[in-house]
Design goal:
The structure holds 2 protein chains of 2 kinds.
Chain A lengths: L3 E4 L2 E4 L4 E8 L5 E7 L6 E7 L2 E5 L6 E7 L2 E7 L7 E8 L8 E2 L3 E5 L1
Parallel strand pairs in A: 2-11
Antiparallel strand pairs in A: 1-3, 3-8, 4-5, 4-9, 5-6, 7-8, 9-10, 9-11
Chain B lengths: L3 E3 L4 E4 L4 E7 L6 E7 L5 E7 L4 E3 L2 E6 L4 E6 L8 E8 L7 E3 L3 E6 L1
The chains are: A mainly beta, B mainly beta.
């Protein structure tokens, strides 16, 4: 069982829809992450939050909008996505120091019609 | 040159055999190293951190060679359940605890 919980597990949406992905952890981690993973590729970092503040945005298109309401929650708001955005979206968390491993949620599999 | 490189495999391993594979990294300032395993259509799961002195966890042994800039993973007495993609992950120490992933090494353990 993963200690990072993501909802929903699967999401199908049209290109004009607005939806949100949610991530929650209760391990006391102060760093949280969003990754995108395409089939047969490693995860690609999208955003990093450290102490609830956005610290890294890997030049992600503005149709993806992250939000960190508190130290346990991380959201990813989606709007006007493209078919190429279909992927597995993974949330991770870690202690905020630089030498700590990240723990991943089981992901949201997103399909854009 | 990629920052973190792995042989994609697949490594076809008879059950009970030993398999080992490496991962090279380009940034000599890299500070921490990890092996994750990922099963098909699942999330990456931390297998082990890799320490300078080398470390072992059951059938798994990880080594770090800073001089040659590579880490290795050795699996002894392979089980069918060890079939997975093994991701080499490096933290170069940049602000924000950013991890860089290798492309993964696929291991198939066969009876």
């Amino acid at each position: 069982d993963t200690e990072v919980t993501q909802t929903p597990k699967h999401l199908v949406m049209g290109m004009t829809n607005k939806k949100s992905l949610k991530c929650e952890q209760h391990m006391g981690h102060r760093a949280m992450y969003w990754y995108k993973q395409k089939a047969k590729k490693p995860p690609e970092l999208m955003f990093v939050y450290s102490y609830e503040k956005l610290s890294i945005n890997e030049s992600v298109p503005s149709r993806f909008s992250p939000e960190c309401p508190n130290s346990s929650l991380l959201n990813l708001h989606l709007h006007a996505l493209q078919p190429e955005d279909s992927a597995l979206y993974l949330c991770a968390s870690s202690h905020a120091t630089g030498d700590q491993p990240q723990h991943f949620g089981d992901g949201t599999r997103l399909s854009i019609l | 040159r990629k920052e973190v490189e792995q042989d994609p495999g697949p490594f076809n391993v008879p059950e009970g055999a030993t398999v080992a594979f490496n991962c090279t990294y380009s940034n000599s300032a890299s500070q921490s190293f990890f092996w994750y395993r990922q099963d098909c259509r699942k999330e990456p799961k931390l297998l082990m951190s890799v320490y300078s002195s080398g470390n072992e966890d059951g059938r798994f042994t990880a080594q770090l060679n800073r001089a040659s800039q590579y880490i290795s993973l050795l699996i002894r007495d392979s089980k069918l359940s060890d079939s997975a993609t093994y991701l080499c992950v490096v933290n170069i120490g940049a602000a924000g605890n950013k991890l860089t992933f290798g492309g993964g090494t696929r291991v198939l353990v066969k009876p």
